[in-house]
Design goal:
It is built from nine helices and four strands, in the order βααβαααβααβαα. A four-stranded parallel β-sheet has the order 3-2-1-4.
Length: about 150
């Protein structure tokens, strides 16, 4: 499958902004390359901001909070999609069909589908387990996502 747009789950941004390991460096390279394209090939939704701000807000880390606030806007590397009512309806449908799916994950998946993402990048093993089920793979074409998203 051709990569048109890669949707980044919130945990990808946490890894990118808060880690200094090999995976974080690879993600940094991905973002750097994406920023050189004419159209931002990476995407996320506004929900990501709410998720990534929890720990730094709890810790009183105003520098990291400000960094997230400034960075999680549409730019050359990624676009940040609003959460529309149609997205929320799609998320509800996903949760109805997949009981183990958490609401934030369903909103991310619905957002990815709504903006036409061809791939979904996450480090959430629980979400990957739900997505790996036969029932999810069968219904994933209904929302325009590949069977097993990476």
């Amino acid at each position: 499958m051709e990569i048109r747009r890669i949707y980044l789950d919130a945990n990808i941004f946490i890894k990118l902004f808060e880690s200094d390991d090999e995976i974080a460096h690879l993600l940094g390279q991905l973002v750097e390359r994406a920023g050189r394209r004419s159209v931002a090939p990476l995407a996320t939704s506004e929900l990501t901001l709410a998720e990534v701000l929890v720990a730094p807000t709890s810790d009183g880390d105003t520098e990291l909070t400000a960094n997230y606030e400034a960075s999680l806007v549409s730019n050359a590397a990624w676009s940040v999609a609003p959460i529309a009512r149609t997205t929320l309806r799609q998320a509800a449908s996903l949760r109805a069909a997949h009981k183990a799916l958490k609401l934030p994950d369903a909103i991310h998946l619905a957002s990815a589908a709504e903006i036409g993402s061809s791939h979904f990048l996450t480090g959430d093993l629980g979400l990957l387990r739900v997505m790996a089920t036969a029932r999810f793979r069968e219904s994933s074409t209904l929302i325009g996502l590949p069977p097993i998203l990476k």
